[in-house]
From TrEMBL:
Domain Disease resistance R13L4/SHOC-2-like LRR, first and last residues per copy: 99-220
Family from the record: Belongs to the RLP family.
UniProt GO cellular component terms: plasma membrane
SUPFAM superfamilies hit by this protein: L domain-like
InterPro entries per UniProt: Leu-rich_rpt, Leu-rich_rpt_typical-subtyp, LRR_dom_sf, LRR_N_plant-typ, LRR_R13L4/SHOC2-like, RLP23-like
GO biological process per UniProt: anatomical structure morphogenesis; brassinosteroid mediated signaling pathway; plant organ development
SMART domains reported for this sequence: LRR_TYP
Natural source organism: Panicum hallii
Protein name: Uncharacterized protein
Gene3D superfamilies found in the cross-reference section: Ribonuclease Inhibitor (3.80.10.10)
Amino acid sequence: MHPSAAKFLLLIVAAASSFLSVASHGLPPRQLKRNASCLPHERDALLAFKENITSDSEGILSSWRRGRKDCCRWMGVTCSNQTGHVLQLDLSHRNLAGQISPSLLSLEHLEHLDLGGTFLSGHDGRFPEFLCSFKNLRYLGLSGLSFASRLPAQLGNLSTLEYLVLTEAYYLPSEVPPQLGNLSNLRHLGLASHDYLYTTDISWLVRLHQLEYLAMDGINLSTIDNWLHVVNMIPSLKSLSLSDCSLPRANQSLTHINLTKLEILELSWNYFRHPIASSWFWNITSIQYLGLSSTYLYGPFPDALGRMTSLSYLGFFENGNSATMAVDLKNLCELSYLWLDGSLSSGNITEFIEKLPQCSSSKLFCLSLNDNNMTGIMPQVMGHLPSLAVLSLCNNSISGSISPGLQNFTSLEELFLSSNHLSGQIPLLPRGLEILDVSMNFLSGHLHFGAPNIKVLILSSNKITGPIPEKFCELQYLHVLDLSNNSFAGELPVCSSMPSLRSLLLSNNEFSGKFPSLIQRLSNLTLLDLSWNKFYGTLPIWIGHLAKLRFLDLSHNMLYGSIPVSITHLRQLQLLNLSFNNISGSIPQSLSKLMAMTKTHTPGPTTTNGLYWYKGWVKNGFLDILSAVTKHQQHKYAEKSIFYIVGIDLSVNHLTGGIPDEMASLDGLRSLNLSRNWLRGNIPKNIGAMELVESVDFSWNSLSGEIPASLSDLTFLSVLDLSYNNLSGRIPSGRQLETVYDSNPTMYDGNNNLCGPPLQRNCSSGHSDPNHGNEKASGENSESLFFYFGLVSGFAVGLWGVLCALLFKKP
Ligand SMILES: *[C@@H]1O[C@H](CO)[C@@H](O)[C@H](O)[C@H]1NC(C)=O
Ligand SMILES: *[C@@H]1O[C@H](CO)[C@@H](O)[C@H](O)[C@H]1NC(C)=O
Ligand SMILES: *[C@@H]1O[C@H](CO)[C@@H](O)[C@H](O)[C@H]1NC(C)=O
Ligand SMILES: *[C@@H]1O[C@H](CO)[C@@H](O)[C@H](O)[C@H]1NC(C)=O
Ligand SMILES: *[C@@H]1O[C@H](CO)[C@@H](O)[C@H](O)[C@H]1NC(C)=O
Ligand SMILES: *[C@@H]1O[C@H](CO)[C@@H](O)[C@H](O)[C@H]1NC(C)=O
Ligand SMILES: *[C@@H]1O[C@H](CO)[C@@H](O)[C@H](O)[C@H]1NC(C)=O
Ligand SMILES: *[C@@H]1O[C@H](CO)[C@@H](O)[C@H](O)[C@H]1NC(C)=O
Ligand SMILES: *[C@@H]1O[C@H](CO)[C@@H](O)[C@H](O)[C@H]1NC(C)=O
Ligand SMILES: *[C@@H]1O[C@H](CO)[C@@H](O)[C@H](O)[C@H]1NC(C)=O
Ligand SMILES: *[C@@H]1O[C@H](CO)[C@@H](O)[C@H](O)[C@H]1NC(C)=O
Ligand SMILES: *[C@@H]1O[C@H](CO)[C@@H](O)[C@H](O)[C@H]1NC(C)=O
């Protein structure tokens, strides 16, 4: 399974299980009375358990001490208030590691044991089979644990068990023990797992007459042709979750549907590929949650959907754009989430919206129709949807303008309209709006704000004109502002402070004026992209005070003057692109202070999360944010890949002086471009220390001396351009350099004094070995530096991922 699909699946499973509180976790707390206190042998058993815990970083068991005699008051322990026996041990989701001690067996009255979400395991990492001997256990929770053994059949001995929660635990490949059919009191069976469990027979399930919750997600049930008939013999079922089970079809016919209590049905990630309407579940009107994503069901939705009046959630996304939805949903007053991304073959948005619930209080909270080939005009009024908070219509063919009535749409918090054919002006935004993405449309006119709580504003790739209005300064919660690829002009407003702003992307507009002083006040700025504008003047010294800056792209402007030395104070900086300006002077020394460009400090992906997106999870995580030229090609980087950028691009400026030796200390750098400057002196001899560098361009300068032999140590190097300098002497040998030369035979051009293979020119006796004669150079070098990324930013589309988070936001 694709990793993102797996991640999504987890969300789905979690969503389905949290959707209704089918399982009551834990017993009602029973307080201890003075007269019944902890029994000594049970206390000893707990202390023996503690002895086998090797790690307790939260200090959860610090109250478990011999000195504190009443073990009923220890953390995680609950006793009977009459007998003092330990009834419940709940250490779930605590950061505990170690072995589960068999001493627990002394807790003969134990009814509830939850160790889920810890790092505990049995002897030798095996499943602690002694747990199967408890006589009174009603709840056993081991979800998320890892065992180096199979799931034991002895679980079937726990005849009093009502809850067995083994979700997402890891075992050696095991058959689901049919002995579980002996657990006649079982109400909750959570076996969802991926690739660890298998079964060829589930007929034992019919013996579980009390079963309300069954989750077997990820278990391959492809050989069980009669699975539906088995399940249909468990009329007590309220929740059935069988996503990613390789179920072959859902079009079985049932003479009688017994599942009249079913509330949750999750069948996503099974490849059914038959007509939607032929599925077996449409008449079950008790269903509240219906998950059918990535099932490739096709054709029209049946009218029966319009009669499923309990339905609150319908997840039908990523189904290959071959379904149609013309059902009248007017009576679905409970419907809160409707996700149909990437599933419809066509549709008219106006007509679609008209068919949505028309109840006195519609609960529709989230409507997502991304990637659906929808046409029609952007609806002007949606008065019948007073609870709608998230509307996502990205990547369709919706035209028309955004209604001025949007301002009165007070429930709306997130609006995604990217990649449509919308035109006209952006109206005043509703006060509650937090996220707006209208990128890649044909919107024009000037910009107004009006949503004081906005956090993410993405207007890139439209035709919006005029200045950024002063009102912008009032947006105290703004995290991300992306106005790239428009026709904005003028200077940026001077705001007193914008504490939340992390990403400011203004590339490819007609902004002008001196380097904007606004930026000095953006103390949390992480990403600044001003490329392809008409900013002029010098780079201010205070740029070195933007301590959180990681990505700085000022390329393609008219900046002049020298690079302030303060720029080396930016310890987080991993991209510096000043290319295509008129910057002069020398490259600063003290480059080694750019810690984020060194190998030991190169940042990881987690630290960029939320850089562009205020909320974590974006569709595929591949929206292009920055683009950069490296290896002679423009590459686009998205939120998940942007952290790979570690580069310096100072190409096409008027830099003078030499390349500082300290440059080589940036051993995390992947790309360095100093092309087309007036740099002199030698290439630093220690350049071979830049172990990770993949692309180096020193072309079109006045570098002299020999090519350092250490260049051939750079095993990741795939592009090197030294053309049009005054380099001389024998070209160093080495496999890496030969490979690089083979893919770019012009890399030494325009250096008339270079000789030796791979060039045809033989070295005369005057030419020395490259390992000698560099002494002169090492003292002389100087300033200089680097470079790397280009720019532009386009945004792809469809954001159903973001919506996913919402499921948890308003349960
Ligand atoms: C003790 O337990 C009984 C039943 O088990 C319960 O009714 C009673 O309220 C409990 N007493 C206290 C003080 O919690
Ligand atoms: C489980 O029950 C079987 C008989 O039903 C017995 O032979 C076995 O020892 C029991 N296992 C445990 C661990 O109690
Ligand atoms: C438990 O189940 C197994 C297989 O399903 C069966 O053979 C066995 O007799 C059952 N044991 C008890 C004690 O019911
Ligand atoms: C499920 O099992 C069947 C039969 O054993 C096998 O052909 C199929 O590849 C399995 N599916 C997955 C997703 O592993
Ligand atoms: C459920 O439906 C089946 C037919 O699909 C029937 O044989 C069975 O008796 C029904 N009732 C129960 C409780 O399983
Ligand atoms: C059910 O769907 C499968 C395709 O998944 C198809 O081959 C089969 O004919 C369908 N059966 C019925 C009864 O519609
Ligand atoms: C479902 O309902 C439709 C119409 O009410 C009916 O024709 C069909 O037989 C029902 N199917 C089942 C399996 O009950
Ligand atoms: C846009 O939607 C179409 C289906 O309508 C889909 O094929 C395409 O991949 C989507 N484009 C993007 C960038 O997601
Ligand atoms: C969409 O539906 C509306 C209302 O029925 C209609 O006026 C419009 O022409 C339709 N648009 C398209 C592109 O079919
Ligand atoms: C918004 O609502 C107010 C009061 O109901 C109304 O006066 C105003 O015209 C509405 N604005 C728009 C643009 O529809
Ligand atoms: C670049 O700067 C130099 C002086 O440093 C100046 O002569 C030249 O006109 C500038 N060029 C541009 C395009 O601004
Ligand atoms: C270096 O920058 C110049 C100008 O931007 C560009 O043409 C060249 O391709 C870049 N070199 C590499 C190796 O990317």
